[in-house]
Amino acid sequence: MSIASPAAPLSPADDPVVDTPEQATAAVRTRRRRADLLVAATALVLAVWVTGALWSDPAHRASGVNSGDQAFFEWLLSYGAYALTHGADPLFTHLLNVPDGVNLAVNTSISVYAFVFAPLTILAGPALTFLVILTLNLAGTAYAWYWLFSRHLGANRIGAAVGGLFCGFAPAMISHANAHLNWTAQWVIPLIIARCLLLVRRDKPVRDGSLLGLLIAVCFSIAAEALFFTALALGVFTLVWVLFRRDEVKALLRPVLTGLGSGALAAGALLAYPLWLHFAGPQRYHGTGFDPRIHNEDLAAYAAWPERSLAGAVGLNGDLAANPTEENSFFGLPLLLLVIIGLVVLWRRTDRAHRANLLGLGVTAGVFLVLSLGPELRWLGSLTGIPMPEALIGGLPVFNAALPSRLALIVAPVFGLVLAWLATALSRTDGGSMKVSLPGPRWAWVAGLTVALLPLVPTPLLARERAAVPEFFASGQWREYVADGGTVVPVPITNDLLPDGQRWQAAALADAAGAGEGVFRLPAGFFLGPGGPNGTGRIGPIPRPTQTLLETVAKTGAAPAVTDADRAALREDLRYWNASIVVLGDDVHGAHWPTYQPALKSVMTDLLGPPQRVADVWLWKVPTT
After folding, report:
1. Average of pLDDT values for 454-479?
2. Is 8:432 a contact under the CB 8 Å cutoff?
3. Taking the CB of residue 185, how many other CB atoms lie within 10 A of it?
């Protein structure tokens, strides 16, 4: 199918016998609606299956491998609701990281989600809102790819369902479902691609371009890194297609440029302030600060199977990812071979118009596969010393803010489209423009699809228990001890590994959003900000002495002898944070290791004296001198 021509309409050949063209069209539309509903229902059931361990008790269950990120996204949802009802800046806040604040534009603000789901956050709390969005992300992504494949890219209903469900529940999607609301929100990518296709298929460039700009703004809010990858992928595909179909380019140039210009104006108007904050605002940074030689894809991982899959359940996972949330390829060898063979067969048996698309897809997948390997080739868990092309661009602006391994996320939709076309060629129903006959017996291709896809069927995500937000914060009792805008110092100080304080504040933000009241501030926190090497970013601020001391105690359980120097450092830190109270909960949550609450209480007692028992927390009032 040429990108310059729409997919062929569905045929009524396999529909019930009808007497008139109008009845035939109505029957086809009915079949399409039924297929759409069936795919949507299947996607939703699968999404609930994957997230089922969290649905058992959203308030007391958290991601088994990434509870720190979950706490961060829950905080973003609560802060967005608070900003919406209080007229606060949704992209910069001084409620975290006192006194410097946090630039949320250089983080993942998910403002669109926070605003749209604010009523649910206020009524039911951020934990349930987080889970609803995560589940809808998975289901919506699968359905959006199905819609794109069936409406715009030449697959019939069966083929589009196979490809769409693969894309929505691909290994990378299941991996990032471990608390990443940004990377699982890939439903917006098919909508962007569809709008780009319409720029060359119909004569409404201003309308289509303006809608494209709106989608770009939405995607920037939810997942700016994914938007960057999408732009790169579309650029590579377009370049290959233009070189292959040079004779068609001149006629398309004017509507495409008009549409892109309209899109740039619309997106620019919506993103002017976020972009200023991102590139020139306070508390910005340049580059992630993460080592690209750690966060690069292992070449062997492309042929390995993911952990949360049927293959992984029987012990076939190769443990080749940097962490459980970054299995960005892990397609398995059978699927790799099937896609390669499928591309070759489709190329040999289709026309020149389809070949331009196949070539563009193959080159795009190959480019992103190679770039995902990072600056140095990794094989079976070890760096080989072999330099890779990503080293040439990894230090460039914007590129230095992306983790190389995540570039592999572009490969999955390419595989999904190839699967959709192969399934279209195999299915007996009509529809779709990819009309080719595959060589060999049909059962062999069906067997190939089964062997490639069955091991990748996802298994439920892991979950773990977490304590409820203390009643002291959930009930608003903290207001008796802290004036609006005052600082609560959690023990230990909040960061990505010790997220309790941010969960406490998220509950207070959701409550304040509904009641119209103010909220307390926190020192430090889990966010990305400046302070990394060579001007790059880091997680949280550079820790102050008290934060370092309490994190060590929480992690080791060793309560060191407290000195006068420790007490002086604490007094200085409390003044720096303008602290009102210091609070220790009964259950300290560690995102990746056990914590030792009794040791923390012992050290804080040595530092500040005996605490008060207020509701279900231990509380120290900060001395005024």
Report:
1. 96
2. yes
3. 27
| Confidence band, pLDDT 50/70/90 cuts, at residue 22 | confident
| Span 568-625, pLDDT tens digits | 999 999 999 999 999 999 999 999 999 999 999 999 999 999 999 999 999 999 987 6
Across the chain, mean pLDDT equals 93
* CA atoms of 164 and 193, how far apart (whole Å): 14
Tokens 């399934």, residue? 423
Query: Does the pLDDT at position 18 exceed 60?
Result: no
- pLDDT > 50? residue 10: no
d(CA 550, CA 492): 5
Nearest to 163 by CA among 423, 452, 430: 423
Number of other residues whose CB lies within 10 A of the CB of residue 310:
15
| CB distance 501 to 494 below 8 Å | yes
CB–CB of 79/509 below 8 Å?
yes
Distance CA 271, CA 276 (A): 8
- What is the separation, in whole angstroms, between the first and last Cα of the chain? 75
How would you write 523-561 as a 3-class SS string?
A: CCCCCEEECCHHHCEEECCCCCHHHHHHHHHHHHCCCCC
> How many other β-carbons are positioned within 10 Å of the β-carbon of residue 51?
23
For residue 537, what are its two tokens?
């970013």
What is the Cα–Cα distance from 5 to 154, expressed in whole angstroms? Answer: 10
Q: How many CB atoms lie within 10 A of CB 171?
A: 29
